[in-house]
Amino acid sequence: MSSSDPKTRSKPPTSPPAPDAPPIPPSSWAKRTGFKPKLSGETNASDSGQISLPSRARENNNQPDLEAGRVRPAPPAVNGEQQPANEKGPAEKKRKEADGVNKGSSASSANGHTVNNGAAPQPQQPTRRPSRNEEVVDVLPQNVDDEGFVGRHSHMKYELRDTPGLVPIGLYGFQHYLSMLGSLILIPLVIVPAMGGTYEDTANVVSTVLFVSGVTTLLHSFLGSRLPLIQGSSFVFLAPALAIINSPEFRGLNGNNFKHIMKELQGAIIMASAFQALLGYSGLMSLFLRLINPVVVAPTIAAVGLSFYSYGFPLVGNCLEIGVMQILLVIIFSLYLRKISVLGHRIFLIYAVPLGLVITWGVAFLLTEAGAYSYKGCDTNIPVSNIISEHCRKHVSRMKHCRVDTSHAFKSSPWFRFPYPLQWGTPVFHWKMAIVMCVVSIIASVDSVGSYHASSLLVSSRPPTPGVVSRGIGLEGLSGILAGLWGTGTGSTTLTENVHTIAVTKMGSRRAVELGACVLIVLSLVGKVGGFIASIPEVIVAALLCFMWAMLAALGLSNLRYSEAGSSRNIIIVGLSLFFSLSIPAYFQQYGISPNSNMSAPSYFQPYIVTSHGPFGTKYEGVNYIMNTLLSLNMVIAFIVAVILDNTVPGSRQERGVYVWSESEAARREPAVVKDYELPFRVGQVFRWVKWVGL
Q1: Residue by residue, what is the 3-state secondary structure of 277-289?
Q2: Which of 53, 434, 538, 560 is the most exposed place for a label (fewest CB within 10 A)?
């Protein structure tokens, strides 16, 4: 009350310090975007998480806290002068509270402004509602947007430790896995035919992938990061798997090519996963985390999705009416109908992939039964080389790719089949393939780090500690060893699509993911399920992959929302990383190939046969194999360029969007964080002496 009396109110200093540079009047674009003429690396944010007008009256407002996922109070004023945002005031020399906010600062800034000792209080500026045509920049995923990126606690239906009941958890768990159907089942439909496997082999690998995914998800939920993240065959491992499959030594094999190549993949995956487990459980991952930030994660994961452009639409073109229909349906469901809710669920957004799959498959079945793809005297079971009729030769490709009855996987699959380890034989180990997979396991760890941080901001009270992240990466390595022993064809890691699924379904319960994993294990024992999935036509698979890979690229770039995406530093780094991730592999893939050369592999597999014609031609064949293969992988080039530039080009922590993980000492004092990440059944006591893999 005394501060409002004009007689007793303290007067502002008579000679305030002169500013470093006169403020430049913002242009209309600067007003809309919150651009500061003099870049400081810090952004002002209102309580809604939107960058506001950079006026002098609002410089003392709260700053967005990347660690806590909410607005952080500005440091208190000292001697009438506001402390810079990147410096600690005397009352906040060291962060001791679990949420990183000093109690005194929180109390003084509860009303949206800071305490100014001896200075006139600045007038509170009303929050201006942006007009419809103005661009709004989101600093953190606090607000509800069309894509479902919401702030935690306020809009999540179930958070990490919620257990509302068996029926709701079962329904939401089934919904969670069904929305990620494409990520779980599509990889075996690509690699098994590439290895020369039959439809029955594809069905068996699909069942194995479902089984291993369920088991590793349970392990990760109990003994890993404990976040509601589904584990499975990641697209990160697809490109190196195709490179190994198309190695020169596997050409012209006699007998069962599928089992021979699968055993080679198993050996490489087991050794690479053991390296990843060592990286996590040794604590090296905690040191490696210092190099991994959003500007590194974004182009690396985006390059994974963009690298398969040569596989997507070229296969869709084999039957345009079916493939284009599949792509259009998924686009319509996920974009144009995304806001339609049925019983409170956005069914078209959540189930865009399975709904599009069912409708397209049904239309293709009707066309097949109606005789649209039947030609007189032609049989799809006859090999192309034995077809004499020119009429049948002309239509055989259309019959093979458009008909839905060419696969006999469902009929030949047994009702019960238990996936067991070493079902394809004893793994074969080659050091050159293992080194390639070891490098890829680092990329998979980078992907998982981004997923850990983004999902924790949605469902948990705090981000995990570096020890929890290391523990999660270590368990992903053990999960990859299981995947190698069972023979899934790829390693096991956190699926990138987890974050989007959690945000869209608003389901962050750990119990729902665990129950869904149990259902997945049961379904994997039903052989007909794997046979049904294996019978999906190749054109429909390629059309779905076009959407999934585009989503993967977009999800990778979405990590930039934690940094200053408009910073010229970040724009140049991401742009260079993406460009060179496409250009350098193209050089390696096209090196030594003449325009009229007759390649034995299909055109969509030619980017993965670089080991036989790459520019590295030393006398050491193994070194040539490793260098030609690694430098032809888009994600490896993107990671190398991004991690070097982001860690050498100067930039503030706010500008870079440096991931802020919870401190171990503060996390152990906060019960909510302990309950979120502590290992169950007193298992954590075993790791008390290993501080780098726990709280």
Answers
A1: HHHHHCCHHHHHH
A2: 53
Domain that holds residue 334: 166-562
**Confidence label for 331 from pLDDT (cuts 50, 70 and 90):** very high
| Per-residue pLDDT at 336 exceeds 80 | yes
φ, ψ of residue 50 in degrees (nearest 5) = -100, 140
Query: Interior CA angle at 625 toward 621 and 627, to 5°?
Result: 115
Q: Please indicate, yes or no, if residue 102 is contained in any of the structural domains.
A: no
Helix ranges (DSSP H) in 255-371:
257-281, 284-288, 294-306, 312-316, 320-331, 347-350, 352-369
**What band does 94 get if pLDDT is binned at 50, 70 and 90?**
very low
Distance CA 616, CA 489 (A): 27
pLDDT at site 276: 95
Number of compact structural domains in the chain = 1
* 385-405 average pLDDT score: 72
**pLDDT for 620-668, tens place per residue?**
888 999 999 999 999 999 999 999 999 999 999 999 999 989 888 888 8
In this structure, is residue 206 part of a structural domain? yes
Q: What is the pTM of this model?
A: 0.76
Residue 643 lies in a domain: no
What is the radius of gyration, based on Cα positions, of the chain?
Answer: 28
CB 187 within 8 Å of CB 209: yes
